[in-house]
Amino acid sequence: MTADERIAALEGEAAEYGEAKARAGFWSRDVALERARAEIASLVGPDPARRGHTFLFGTAADGRRVGWVWVGPLPGARPARGKRWLFQIIVDEGLRGQGYGRGLLGALERQLAAAGVRELRLNVFRWNSVAIALYTTSGYDVLREGERNLEMRKNLGRA
């Protein structure tokens, strides 16, 4: 992604993340968007690559964009070469339910494994049954169960 594409993607992410946090009961709707923007900004900073964040477009076989992913270091942890955090995987709304999410996730896992990453972690809200099913059937295990969310991980192989 270019810097402008990343900025646009993260603004959309802030809106979606704020709504998800409000829906899950973590934040009130009146402050959700600003809190989401602030949290994302604190994660990525002015130079996301320098902090270890990567933003990638996913494309179909014909070359059209179908979605994007954001992966980076584990939140709140010191950077660990062998572990990464999946912050977001988005399939464009009109293309959902056609296997693109599974394809994006599989491509990301292969790319990370080739780069020496041994473990991919993520958080998913309990109300997001579609995402939970995707991760479960893709080999992710529950690491921690919260009242409103699950932390999941997958072993990507040896580094």
Topology:
Blueprint: H1 3-23, H2 29-44, E1 54-59, E2 65-72, E3 83-91, H3 100-114, E4 119-125, H4 129-137, E5 141-145, E6 149-155
Helix pairs in contact: 1-2
Q: Indicate the CATH architecture.
A: 3-Layer(aba) Sandwich
User: How many domain modules?
Assistant: 1
The CATH topology comes to Aminopeptidase
Distance between the termini: 26 Å
Characterization of this structure:
This protein has 4 helices and 6 strands, in the order ααβββαβαββ. With 159 residues, it is an alpha+beta fold. The chain has a single domain, classed as Gcn5-related N-acetyltransferase (GNAT) (Aminopeptidase, 3-Layer(aba) Sandwich), CATH 3.40.630. It has a 6-stranded mixed beta sheet with strand order 1-2-3-4-6-5, sandwiched between helices. The longest helix has 21 residues. It is globular. It starts with a helix and ends with a strand. 25% of the residues are buried.
Fill in the keyword field for this structure.
38% helix; Aminopeptidase; 159 residues; globular; 6-stranded mixed β-sheet; alpha+beta
Provide a short characterization of the protein structure.
The chain is α+β, with helices and mostly antiparallel strands. It has one domain (3-155): Aminopeptidase (3-Layer(aba) Sandwich).
